[in-house]
Amino acid sequence: MKTEPVPFDKFAKIGIYPKDLMRMPKDLRDSILSGELSPLMRLNVPVGDNSAVSIPMKIQLVHDKDGKLQLLTYQIHRELDNTLRLNDTELERIRKGGVIQKEFKEGDKRKMRYVQLGKETNALMYRDVATVNFEEKLREVDRIKDIGLGIGQKEALASGKPVELEVGDQKVTVGIDLREPVGFKVMQGDMEEWKRQQAIRYDDAHEGYMGYVQTDENRWEYKQVVDRLRHEESIRLTEREKADRKEDKKRGLSL
């Protein structure tokens, strides 16, 4: 992400004030300001009356189609938070680690967006298609800038599917990944390696729900953000409750 003024006003809305940003570990601060998706963070989000609520989330700075910085927040949910009202087919695809392209209506306007599941948070990550110019990104990569994409490959990439390319005697896989600063990823290896790396990235990020906690002393501590066992037990409990409700409905219908 290009160097530009830090949007302190946007950070302040989630309880990160200039002094908090300056006291962050340098590698954490630099990664956030460069547009990378943050690790888990427990932030003291102001809610008025000089009070705050402690909320675990991930954050990311991205540019909108007009080039303006936006601060996206992804709170942790016990189960997938389908705020975008995806259908069953779309949900199945993103649960498997895929990315979809879908049109959404906002007022009188319609926007095409990429949607991807943040498995660590169970939140839906999304970004306007217009902000992810994958053909331009490919031209910026020296080793593949001279490779012309076929119509089928362009259509696959545009729809959110990764594509495997031959670069000399090596294979490179490219695809939409909203966790990246530019929303696009270029990886050495074939399609199987892409899937393996995506799985490793999820496991590493998910391990122990470790992250950064904003303390009352305006400092940052690296510790467990969410109790993993309690979180997973809550998920299992929710699933059992759903199953019980289905059984109740069946019994009701059979009476």
UniProtKB/TrEMBL annotation:
Domain DUF4099 residue range list: 4-80
Superkingdom, natural source: Bacteria
InterPro entries reported in the protein's UniProt record: DUF4099
Protein name: DUF4099 domain-containing protein
Organism field: Hallella mizrahii
Taxonomic path: Bacteria, Pseudomonadati, Bacteroidota, Bacteroidia, Bacteroidales
